[in-house]
Amino acid sequence: MEKVLYGKPLAALIRARIKELIAEHGLAPRMRLIQTGNDPAASYYVQNIVSSGAKLGCEVQLASLPANVGQAELLSLIAAANADPQTHGIMLQKPLPRQIDDALAGAGIDPAKDIDCLNPVNLGRILLGEDSLLPATALAVLCTLGHYRVPVAGRHVVIIGRSAIVGKPLANMLLWKKPWANASVTVCHSRSANLEELTRGADILVAALGQAEFVQPEMIKNNCVLIDVGINEQKRADGKPGYVGDIDYNACYGKALAITPVPGGIGSVTTSLLFLNLLKAALAAQGINKTVDDFLDFIFKE
Ligand code: NAD
């Protein structure tokens, strides 16, 4: 196993598969990307999705709504995208403004077009171990582990963070009866009383809490695999903006068996998987239903 689990080589493989599928099926995938307000991190991610779409041959239609958009206006935009047969996937960029009910907005997206997995139907399918449109970040973690041949089955995976978009779906996917999952899972959160005791028991530690360099060497055991989902803005020494993860990379590197960098780790894989979901939805619209294993057989082969 390599020590640094880079995301870019894996993302390149996923992008190649996407291009192959588009050519094979003559698809013209189209995504409706909805941004509310102008949060800088969200804008950065949105621009990344738009430019990735252009490179992959997927159309990304961006709707930029003001931060004071009302619930009804947002829901009607989502409903229009649901009804448009040329739109295969809908992505609602978070964070949503305070006046918007996240759950209502997610529930408004047609489950068949819900490429970021916000609809309770898709989240429920994950709980039941059924294939669905899977949340790209959680899938990125599993793909990274699979690609770098990190043994997961039977191992103890500890996740810090219980959000509906990362921690909870990832925990449930890790429990799937698949050769690339089958883990024992502990989920920790802000009210976990004995956090360090729990994280020290991890064979694989996933940090998804959104706190810069939170995980320190005393919180991990020797030869633990460290997966960093966090993306936190932090000024570099030269005053320029930079990003760090939820794990103190330099401090934990020596103790870890393997570690994902930030940037250049999980985040690099996530965007390509969002487009894979778009393709999955576009194919399903043509009556071609492929499972995650069909799409990612080159990663999840035994
Ligand atoms: P969130 O704020 O919705 O959830 C954070 C979770 O962490 C909560 O469940 C909370 O209980 C837990 N938490 C917070 N402080 C804690 C503490 N001190 N101890 C233990 N648990 C604590 O965040 P999210 O949307 O799940 O995102 C988490 C991180 O992942 C953020 O840094 C975000 O930017 C990043 N992210 C990365 C990607 C990617 O593609 N790499 C995608 C989505 C989110």
Ranges where pLDDT stays below 50 over 5 or more residues in a row are: none
Number of helices: 12
Radius of gyration: 19 Å
End-to-end separation: 16 Å
What count of structural domains? Answer: 2
How would you characterize the largest beta sheet?
5 strands, parallel
Arithmetic mean of pLDDT: 96
What is the CATH-assigned architecture of the largest domain? 3-Layer(aba) Sandwich
DSSP summary, beta strand count: 10
Specify the CATH class of the largest domain.
Answer: Alpha Beta
Question: How would you spell out the order of helices and strands?
Answer: HEHEHEHHHEHEHEEEEHEHHH
Shape: globular
**Helix/strand/pairing category:** alpha/beta
Distinct bound molecules: nicotinamide-adenine-dinucleotide
Biggest sheet: strands side by side, in what order?
A: 5-4-6-7-10
Could you walk me through the main structural features you see in this protein, from its secondary elements to its overall organization?
The chain has 302 residues and is an alpha/beta fold. The protein has two domains: 23-122, Rossmann fold (3-Layer(aba) Sandwich), CATH 3.40.50; 136-266, 3-Layer(aba) Sandwich (Rossmann fold), CATH 3.40.50. It has twelve helices and ten strands. It has helices spanning 8-25, 40-56, 71-83, 102-108, 120-127, 136-147, 167-174, 195-199, 249-253, 266-285, 292-295, 297-300; strands at 30-36, 59-65, 89-92, 156-160, 184-188, 204-207, 224-228, 232-235, 241-244, 256-259. Helix 7 links the parallel strand 4 and strand 5 (184-188). The longest helix has 20 residues, at 266-285. The protein is globular. The mean pLDDT is 96. Nicotinamide-adenine-dinucleotide (NAD) is lined by residues 137, 160-163, 165-167, 188-190, 192, 195, 208-211, 229-232, 266-267, 270.
